[in-house]
Amino acid sequence: MANRDRTIPVTTTHPSTAPVPNHPTNRATTPSTHTRTRRLTQPPLSTHPLNPLTLKLVLDRFDRALPQPRYAVTGHAALMVWGYRPGQQHGSFLWCDAPGEGAGEEGVGLGMTAHVSMLCPAEDCGVILSWAKVVGWGVHREGEATEEQGTGGQVKEVIGVPVYVPVSAVSAAMTTAVMKETKTTAPTPGERGPLLLGPHSGLEEEVEVVVGVRLRAVSSQAWESLWIVRPSEMKAPFIGWVGEMVRTEARVVAIPTLLNEFARAWYFCLTKGSGTGSPQERHIAGLILWIMRRLAADVRKHGYRARWVLTVEEAPNLVYPGFREPFVAEYGEVLPLFEVGGISQFDLLAFTQQQGIEI
Which of 18, 100, 102, 175 would be 113's cystine partner, CB 3.0–4.6 Å? Predict the structure, then answer.
């Protein structure tokens, strides 16, 4: 299936020949005029769970600074874009304290991660890292390259994207922890401290949060199979998800692609991870059920006007017997959801000979 990201023309340059100008002329790729002087040492990455406001700030800033290289937000960050909130009910489960990201990522409590996961073609990875350094963002190496589930690929670097979040939108515990991490004391009222920019809006102060963006390079074939959209540009009949979604300008994997990713992550957990019944396995299953229930509810209410109707081509991992049979055996309630969502019993039977899920 051809990649569906058709929102803007995209040009790429091989990492070895990527231009890194001393003075970028593209306004979108330069720091904003109020950005502070670049630090000699990079601040630590936040270890606190993301919330919708912080996530939107990070994604919008990333997209404005790096508009040309190809990327797509995935994992828990993409799930939050589409309306997921930690602590929600998933059928008979309430996963509010399960481990984090289903696609092989470390959890930070409350079922949400502190970082953003992004996919990119392998040939664009160097371009993204080069421009991140030009903008002034820190690039942190994760030691040895770590294998990632989902669409495959490896995570080698994490980009630190700084954003300024209104103090009122940040929990007191997080604000205190951020100040402690940077060995900073809270300023007195009216004082501009090292972390606080002051009342930019004229109403309240802001605290700096540096969010890690984990860049996962994938093969060209894997990249072309992704369905990618910009939530801010979604138009009718975008029916069942608008009210809760994060209207970011960034490029995000669509729900069928995200569901396919989590199916792969669950299969990985079952075969090479912690196994059935583990907190991680139950957490990923809860995310799959959350997506399936939203899809089914949208179809039941809006019929052909529903935003996403599943097909075998868009979510092949769902019908792979290695995933489908153990998942249905463990969570039988998903079978009618498959049917309502668009994948029929005939589809399930017809693809019993499908190739295995690549890990």
Answer: 100
Round to whole Å and give the CA distance between 181 and 189. 21
User: Which candidate, 261, 256, 267, places its Cα nearest to that of 325?
Assistant: 267
pTM of the model: 0.71
Q: Phi, psi (5° rounding) for residue 116?
A: -110, 135
Domain around 53:
42-350
Phi, psi (5° rounding) for residue 214?
A: -85, 115
Residue 8: CB partners within 8 Å, gap ≥ 6? 67
Which residues are CB-neighbours of 216 under 8 A, at least 6 positions away?
74, 117, 118, 119, 120, 148, 150, 151, 153, 154, 155
Distance CA 206, CA 196 (A): 5
**Smallest Cα–Cα separation from 151: which of 81, 82, 224?**
224
Query: Which residue is associated with the tokens 């939530």?
Result: 231
Tokens 């929990």 sit at which residue? 171
Query: Distance of CA 58 to CAs 61, 114, 161, 211, Å?
Result: 5, 12, 7, 7
Cβ contacts of 113 within 8 Å, gap of 6 or more: 49, 50, 75, 76, 77, 100, 101, 105, 106, 107
Are 102 and 280 in contact by the 8 Å Cβ rule? The answer is yes
What is the mean predicted confidence (pLDDT) over 228-257?
79
β partners of residue 206: 166
Split into its structural domains, the chain has a count of 1
% helix, strand, coil for the chain, step of 5: 35, 15, 50
Six-digit token pair at 8?
């803007």
Residue 272, burial from CB neighbour count under 10 angstroms (0-12, 13-18, 19+): exposed
Residue 209 lies in a domain: yes
Residue whose structure tokens are 């109707």? 309
Q: Please report whether residue 9 resides in a domain.
A: no
Helix axes 334-341, 279-302, angle to 10 degrees: 40
Is residue 22 in a domain? no
Are the beta carbons of 144 and 136 closer than 8 angstroms?
Answer: no
Residue 2 lies in a domain: no
Assign 3-class secondary structure to 292-336: HHHHHHHHHHHHHHCCCCCCCCCCHHHCCHHHHHHHHHHCCCHHH
Of 90, 104, 120, 136, residue with least CA distance to 294: 90
pLDDT (tens digit per residue) in 65-92: 999 899 999 999 999 999 888 765 544 4
User: How many residues does the structure list for the chain?
Assistant: 359
